[in-house]
Design brief:
Layout lengths: L7 H17 L3 E8 L5 H13 L8 H4 L3 E7 L11 H9 L13 E9 L12 E9 L2 H4 L9 H12 L6 H7 L10 H20 L38 H23 L6 E6 L1 H7 L1 H14 L9 H7 L6 E6 L10 H11 L1 H9 L3 E6 L6 E8 L2 E10 L2 E5 L9 H8 L33 H9 L4
Parallel strand pairs: 1-4, 1-5, 5-6, 6-7
Antiparallel strand pairs: 2-3, 3-4, 8-9, 9-10
Helix pairs in contact: 2-4, 7-8, 10-11, 11-15
Organism: Paragemmobacter straminiformis
Protein name: YcjX family protein
Pfam families: DUF463 (PF04317)
């Protein structure tokens, strides 16, 4: 129907309704950024913000491609009790005269981006630009792991942890100590503190070794809880009987207090208000470390992302007040460590690795996708000859040198990796996969261009493009 054929009264009514909606009800999208240690959350957020402020590299974000984004600006986050994400400091680390990776997430932080966007479709000719706010919430991956504790009793958690770490080299000291412990004896506070300290040393060693199942997360990043009784417990063998006042009962009491007073409030206050979610995973790092690391990552992410499973996870529904995350993106980071010809294989592996969690999320009503990306591209692609064969490599800075890396060929079929990982293989039989710790290089950015990235625009389109 032609616009001129619509009665003036109807047009004015539509204009008034649209004006009221856009003026008084500015849409707000809360994007949660989560992931385990070393997944690259800080780099992802910094790269995303830089490329939303300067959008020359965001061609796959439809509102940008259509020229409807008139302006984007940073403003103070609405929650005045949270630290602001240090975007400027992190960007300076990546793009300064001595570029380096910024420090990882140590606490919850938030950032608000406000978009002035022209509408599309029928309303485009009836109203002017509207404002859409994007609140980005960043929180430590170590704290994310605590989500799995909410469904586990102290007895279940202790048994699972001791069984899982029994043969790990970095757990040798703790296992030697805890095997000699008798939980039925009366509580000795000095002994309890020594056990907690020994377990904490194990967690730091496990994190350094690339383990992804280090709980409780606040033991690694205690903040103002350092030294408090709520962080003074450890997994110990369950005794045949444990009277009130015994070491076992006190450990159990502190574990329950940790869940009730630390974990639940955190997810109630922050996780409950998330509209869209991106889950970052260092899939390449796990592949490099071997089959056991891949299986650990699969199990850990399945536990964490059980938050999106309906049915017996009724505790989360109560905490969230029935609210669900609408879209979840599962992203394999550090795609710049691979030539683009292998990105499809990395995406397929990430999707298969997180299949169980992805299926649960979709069953709960969320829309999901898998993607490989890099929040900041630290390499360039090249080709080298080896024994008369051309190899597709990436080249980047390592220390004061520029090196080329051919990491090996990822299999097209993800089962070639996931099957031996599930079967407990210790090494890959057919090939090994290399990885280098590339560092950012100095760059000269063109006006209007954000930092170089891989698929941040596609990630943004999936996560909040529909709101623009």
């Amino acid at each position: 129907m032609a616009l001129q054929n619509i009665p003036d009264g109807i047009v004015r009514s539509i204009e008034g309704a649209v004006a009221r909606a856009s003026g008084s009800l500015e849409p707000v999208v809360r994007l949660g950024v989560t992931g385990l240690s070393r997944a690259g959350k800080t780099v992802f957020i910094t790269g995303l913000v830089a490329n939303l402020l300067d959008r020359g590299r965001m061609g796959q974000l439809s509102a940008v491609a259509q020229g409807r984004v008139e302006a984007v600006y940073l403003q103070p986050q609405p929650d005045l009790t949270l630290p602001r994400f240090d975007y400027e400091g992190h960007l300076a680390a990546l793009t300064g005269d001595a570029p380096h990776w910024p420090e990882s997430t140590k606490a919850v932080s938030e950032l608000r981006l406000s978009f002035r966007v022209r509408p599309s479709g029928f309303l485009a000719g009836l109203t002017g630009p509207r404002v859409v706010h994007l609140d980005i919430v960043d929180y430590p991956g170590e704290w994310l792991l605590d989500l799995s504790l909410l469904e586990r009793s102290y007895a279940d958690w202790s048994e699972a942890v001791l069984d899982r770490i029994a043969k790990r080299a970095e757990a040798g000291e703790f296992m030697a100590v805890v095997r000699a412990e008798d939980g039925s004896l009366p509580l000795d506070e000095g002994r309890a503190q020594a056990l907690a300290a020994c377990y904490t040393r194990y967690l730091f060693a496990a994190q350094a070794a690339g383990r992804g199942d280090c709980t409780p997360g606040r033991f690694l990043l205690p903040g103002d809880l350092a030294g408090s009784p709520v962080l003074t417990f450890a997994p110990i063998p369950r005794p045949a009987s444990a009277a009130r006042g015994s070491l076992w009962r006190e450990m159990e009491r502190r574990y329950d207090a940790y869940r009730a007073q630390v974990v639940k409030p955190f997810f109630r206050d922050h996780f409950a208000r998330i509209d869209r979610q991106i889950v970052l995973a260092d899939v390449l790092g796990a592949i490099h470390r071997g089959p056991q690391a891949v299986e650990e990552l699969r199990r850990t992410m399945a536990d964490v992302l059980g938050a999106f499973r309906p049915g017996r996870n009724g505790w989360l529904t109560r905490i969230l007040g029935g609210r669900r995350v609408e879209r979840i993106l599962f992203a394999a980071t550090k795609a710049d460590h691979l030539h683009h010809s292998q990105h499809a294989a990395l995406t397929a592996i990430a999707g298969a690795l997180l299949r169980e969690a992805k299926d649960r999320a979709e069953f709960a009503g969320a829309r999901t996708a898998a993607l490989s990306l890099a929040g900041f591209r630290a390499t360039v692609e090249d080709e080298v000859m080896r024994d008369g064969v051309a190899l597709a490599v990436v080249r980047g800075r390592v220390g004061d040198r520029t090196l080329a890396l051919y990491p090996g060929r990822l299999p097209e079929d993800p089962a070639r990796l996931l099957a031996p990982a599930r079967q407990g293989a210790e090494t890959w039989l057919e090939a090994e996969f290399g990885l280098m710790a590339f560092e950012p290089s100095r760059m000269a950015l063109k006006p209007g261009d954000g930092v170089p990235h891989i698929r941040l625009d596609r990630a943004a389109e999936f996560l909040f493009g529909d709101k623009l």
